């Protein structure tokens, strides 16, 4: 698709240029020591950040987090770094996240994040451990206009204020869990390979025992 008819330098699309911006979005939740009078049981934060905690406001203008309607002003607009909202609450729900870019010609994008307050494996349910649920994703800007390209290539500062979930030392647990998961899948794949080998052998036997016919 050509947009070369568009006049003016800053609106010109840069042919054959693709810029990828890795981001992490998600939430972390900490159980409160004591249930609040309003029934709230957790303190949580939903966030969008760069992979290294860098200031992504070089190309992101604002982030809108749409919370459950039981919250006051459920549409939370965050127009400066860090892009996050902290609240207390009692329940899990889907949060709609909308990213707006510095260049107005770049359409905003929307996606959902499921707020997680409780660990997935029940054994931890009584524990006071924070629950992190985050996702890696990549924003792909294909042939961006010149002005957006400038925003995308502006060097960003790495923030000194590390978010709480990066300071808390529970990444080790997480790594262990991920490793377990990988081993489980490896096991499954090996089992499937064995199963196919077995089926293959049976088929080969059948073929061998078939009468040979001359055509
Ligand atoms: C559930 N479908 O039933 C979900 C809804 C709503 C959570 C969860 C705080 C509200 C307030 C809150 O945690 N809402 O401000 O009191 O689990």
From TrEMBL:
PANTHER family: PROTEIN AF-9 HOMOLOG (PTHR47573). Its main location: nucleus. InterPro entries: YEAST_sf (IPR038704), YEATS (IPR005033), YEATS_dom (IPR055129). Residues 179-206 form a coiled coil. CDD domains: YEATS_TFIID14_like. It comes from the Eukaryota. It comes from Piromyces finnis. The keyword Transmembrane helix does not apply. GO terms for biological process: regulation of DNA-templated transcription. GO terms for cellular component: chromatin; nucleus. This is Protein AF-9 homolog. Signal peptide: none annotated. Keywords: Coiled coil, Nucleus, Transcription, Transcription regulation. Residues 13-155 form the YEATS domain. PROSITE patterns: YEATS. It is found in: Nucleus.
């Amino acid at each position: 698709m050509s947009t070369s008819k568009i006049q003016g330098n800053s609106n010109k699309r840069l042919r054959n240029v693709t810029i990828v911006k890795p981001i992490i979005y998600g939430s972390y939740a900490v159980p409160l020591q004591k249930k609040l009078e309003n029934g709230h049981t957790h303190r949580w934060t939903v966030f969008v950040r760069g992979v290294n905690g860098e200031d992504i406001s070089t190309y992101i203008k604002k982030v809108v987090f749409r919370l459950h309607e039981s919250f006051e002003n459920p549409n939370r607009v965050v127009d400066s770094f860090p892009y996050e909202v902290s609240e207390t609450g009692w329940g899990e729900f889907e949060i709609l996240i909308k990213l707006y870019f510095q260049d107005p010609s770049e359409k905003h994008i929307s996606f959902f994040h499921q707020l997680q307050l409780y660990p997935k494996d029940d054994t931890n349910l009584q524990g006071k451990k924070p629950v992190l649920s985050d996702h890696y994703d990549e924003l792909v800007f294909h042939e961006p206009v010149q002005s957006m390209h400038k925003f995308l290539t502006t060097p960003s500062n790495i923030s000194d204020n590390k978010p709480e979930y990066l300071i808390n030392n529970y990444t080790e647990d997480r790594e262990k869990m991920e490793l377990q998961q990988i081993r489980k899948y490896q096991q499954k794949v090996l089992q499937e390979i064995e199963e196919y080998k077995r089926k293959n052998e049976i088929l080969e036997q059948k073929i061998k025992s078939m009468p040979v016919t001359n055509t």
